[in-house]
């Protein structure tokens, strides 16, 4: 039985505890041994993303110290996983346990489909769902085939959700355009960020979505903020919150 | 000029921004459909990337091979260290022939070297003959896109511009009528030109020839009527063999406009009978880029514009929001290499969504280069101090679990208690168009202990 370290990104811990709990429940109900190490904080992405990688280094060191001994590390956030997998090299290259950590850190959905190999998702969710493809999940972790590539289509998040009874995943006119969150981009380029987000919301609404679901709470936090300000009748949910109602096997 | 500010200004006209966004997104759509007709598309991209990588690894050898073979073909080859030298060489050739009227097809390199003003100051009329280039030239604007330079102009505006500058009837907006008017106007310029200048899409080391790709045939007309043809190229335009062309030509037009091939693909292998053919090979900072292990890859660019068309920021901010003459993701990597201080905001003009990287026909990892350049800018001290201090504080809080827990608790306690005018004051950029996230009473780490194991 692999020992799983649950990595709950800082903003999920502080602002969206129910998403963290949903991820924990999904994993525990699969019979996995899951631990949440309390000494964890943040992966360092906000600093690295702003060009201040030196300020992110102590967090990379901490991450390795806290999570290095787990068989698997799982997080309900594609972007933070990408930070560990794709951007920790300059900080941790050559350090004991780093290669293992990089190989063993997973986004929740890819962990379910690729490692646990969940075949069946039983449950119901009788809503029209717009699936938001977070860019880092899409193009850094390859959770799905991005629309630019000429390759067979696949989508790990959709493959889980689409099994639910009654769910209708609505077709978007731009299947994987960025929502404009982009970390510090959201405030540095506020006008661009907000316009991109409003355009995304409009696409989901014209497609008839009642719920926007995604694997990255940061994109969803941005979309939720815009939807609430504009008074749009949209519910924003992390995939884990939908999956926690279902039985996975 | 800070990209964020100029982008906000462009996007303030939301209807026009959406029109611009849609015009470019439809180009991206055409590219997708064209790419999908080639089952081995990804293999082509990989091959193109490798050919470029290989060429860059022995660039000097290939350039010299090109020079030798070009000379054998009767082409006169010139070397220019920078834009100034390039302009002087072009002017020297024109002066020797007493030429005062030159037609020019599309060349981003001559834009980069500011050739037009240089020649105009020396009494030479330069007419851009690509329709889009002519439009921006008449409007006295730089190009706003590297493939479709006047994409930001609506047809009514072009009708008005033509009325004002080339004397067409007032109120024209039919693209066919406008194009015909430009055609007649340009025909006169072609007939009167004493020299023609073109860019170079690919220079072939093995044959000493080069290829120019256009959709309007303007490079062909402009270089076959006058007796002097000057072709200007950056050092990165060379490819080893003629057979490599097949890889790039299949990628280029599909990536740029979704065409299987451009209307004109012209191979030049020597001067016309009785004429002269000159090639000017320009460095202008490129060998600096070549020396950088990270940013070298940006020299692989074949200027298809696909990264602009797919960029959600470019589409919504327009070419003029970028301080460098090449806008979009590739320009945001190239510009700061030339002048990091002048273009320090460009690597931040991206959500790092990575669509540019996946669309790039030569697989430049553009969003990773933008990320890497952010680090360089901070190291060089070119990011505002208050941002660096904010990140240092954030990093230091997040490195100490007790400080992080305390900061989180304070935040969640204070924010809900603030009056709205305070919580959403002008200092809150997030809250300008967005609500703040909910501030729950308890964090995940407070709640996790209460979960059944």
Q: Could you describe the 3D structure shown?
A:
The complex is a heterodimer of chains A (249) and B (453). Chain A has 249 residues and is an alpha/beta fold. In chain A, 48% of the residues lie in helices and 13% in strands. In chain A, the strands form 3 sheets. Chain A has a 4-stranded parallel beta sheet with strand order 2-1-3-4, sandwiched between helices. Chain A has a 4-stranded parallel beta sheet with strand order 7-6-8-9. A two-stranded antiparallel ribbon of chain A has the order 5-10. In chain A, strand 8 (211-214), helix 13 and strand 9 (235-238) form a beta-alpha-beta unit. In chain A, helix 12 (190-206) crosses helix 13 (217-230). Among the domains of chain B are: 42-284, 3-Layer(aba) Sandwich (Rossmann fold), CATH 3.40.50.10420; 385-450, no CATH class. Chain B is 50% helix and 10% strand. Chain B is built from 22 helices and 10 strands. Chain B has helices at 3-11, 14-36, 41-57, 59-72, 83-96, 108-112, 115-120, 131-138, 155-165, 175-192, 218-224, 245-257, 286-290, 306-310, 312-317, 328-338, 355-359, 366-379, 385-398, 401-414, 420-423, 444-447; strands at residues 76-80, 101-104, 125-128, 195-198, 202-204, 209-214, 228-234, 238-239, 264-268, 276-282. In chain B, the strands form 2 sheets. In chain B, strands 1-10-7-4-2-3 form a 6-stranded parallel beta sheet, sandwiched between helices. A 4-stranded mixed beta sheet of chain B has the order 8-5-6-9. In chain B, a hairpin with a 4-residue loop joins strand 5 and strand 6. The longest helix of chain B has 23 residues, at 14-36. The interface between A and B is large, with 78 and 78 residues.
